[in-house]
What we know:
By secondary structure, this protein is mainly alpha-helical. It has one domain (48-198). Helix content is 53%, strand content 5%. It has six helices and three strands; from the N terminus they run H-H-H-H-E-E-E-H-H. A three-stranded mixed β-sheet has the order 1-3-2. The chain is globular, with a radius of gyration of 17 Å.
Amino acid sequence: MKYKLDLAPKASLYAPPITGAIITPVQVxxxxxxxxxxxxxxxxxxxFITTLKQVFEESxxxxxxxxxTDVQKANGGLxxxxxxxxxxxxxxxxxxxxxxxxxHHFADFIAAHFPGDxxxxxxxxxxxxxxxxxxxxxxxxASIYPDNSAVREEGGTLAFGLLNFFDALKAGAxxxxxxxxxxxxxxxxxLARYEELRTTAKP
Length: 203
């Protein structure tokens, strides 16, 4: 796989704000600050995909991975600590999916890029997990376990392990980056979304 994500913590001697607008202009690329992102090319090329990969690694999935690791070290597992992680994963998926897919980007991304049995549950994942957790903070018709269990139907609804979902999200992001190199529709949508986010950032 050409665009395999590396979620290991990155060392940096530069200390900008941890998120948001940069008050003092900076000339370096900071993945979590869109005002520093390079201008998009006229067409998707390897450099652009590498930039997007770095955004996914450092400002989205790497952040979640760091918290997952910290929680497991401090607590010995995700029991009673996975709720906010689940919410952050839904937001991460929503953000990553918005680059290449449009109308039903969350479900379309899962259907196109997630591994295993996740694609066949794409619409249910959107309704039961994304909408419920992001809009209502809780799950009402589905379950998440603090382990690596696979997605499955259980008790008339859906369930999966949080660690399994995170692995699937990482694999989905990698598959998306691989597909981006050769898919004109993904390229058009991704360039437009990237530029939209970049130009709305305060310089």
